[in-house]
Design brief:
The structure is a single chain. The chain is α/β, with parallel strands linked by helices. The protein is built from 8 helices and 5 strands, in the order βαβααβααβααβα. The chain has one domain: Rossmann fold, CATH 3.40.50.300. A 5-stranded parallel beta sheet has the order 2-3-1-4-5, sandwiched between helices. It is globular. The protein starts with a strand and ends with a helix. Bound molecules: thymidine-5'-phosphate (TMP).
């Protein structure tokens, strides 16, 4: 199974994806990945270098092509749990002003996950939870990204979990509960 976690930073997706991977004995991975392109992306996200938003969208798509090869290899052996994937690009880059059809088109080689968990959170709580801020870590922007994610949740059937007032354990148990009810 290929399981993806999406959400704004501070939603708990990294903690939860790691916990689930451990529980399932799955391979845990993340985007932007640690490929060469991923490293360039992190430099841009830190604000050190500025590029056009379309360029950044292309870099995320390029990183994803490389990363998807690794995911496919791992899927031959075990389940894969991924912290961010295609939907991060659709949400963040479209809110940043890039045409959604362009984003979908350059990501046409992405895998279709079996399950996507979208973790949502009150924006104030998210900002309090996040320690290192990148170029997207601004209240109004994150609100728009979360709204876009919720729109995508309907289009792609995500499982949506609000983590605002829940403990790590409560959210984890909710996730396990959903997985138990999914035939595979
Ligand atoms: P992270 O904080 O989860 O490591 O993600 C890094 C940032 O990159 C975060 O602000 C979301 C952003 N991002 C995109 O804008 N598009 C993408 O396709 C991905 C994977 C991440």
């Amino acid at each position: 199974m290929f399981i993806v976690f999406e959400g704004i930073d501070g939603s708990g997706k990294t903690t939860q994806s790691k916990l689930l991977a451990k529980k399932m004995d799955a391979f845990w991975t993340y985007e932007p990945s640690n490929s060469l392109v991923g490293k360039i992306i992190r430099e841009i996200l830190s604000g050190k270098t500025e590029v056009d938003n379309k360029t950044l969208a292309l870099l995320f798509a390029a990183d994803r092509i490389e990363h998807t090869k690794l995911i496919k290899e791992e899927l031959k052996k075990r389940d894969v749990v991924c912290d961010r994937y295609l939907y991060s690009s659709i949400a963040y880059q479209s809110v940043a002003g890039v045409d959604e059809n362009f984003i979908k088109s350059i990501n046409r080689y992405a895998l279709k996950p079996d399950i996507v968990f979208l973790l949502i959170v009150d924006i104030e709580t998210a900002l309090k939870r996040v320690k290192t801020k990148d170029i997207f870590e601004k209240k109004d922007f994150l609100k728009k990204v979360q709204d876009k994610y919720l729109e995508l949740a309907e289009e792609y059937n995500f499982i949506v979990i609000d983590t605002t007032k829940k403990s790590v354990e409560e959210v984890h148990n909710e996730i396990i509960g959903y997985l138990k009810n999914i035939p595979h």
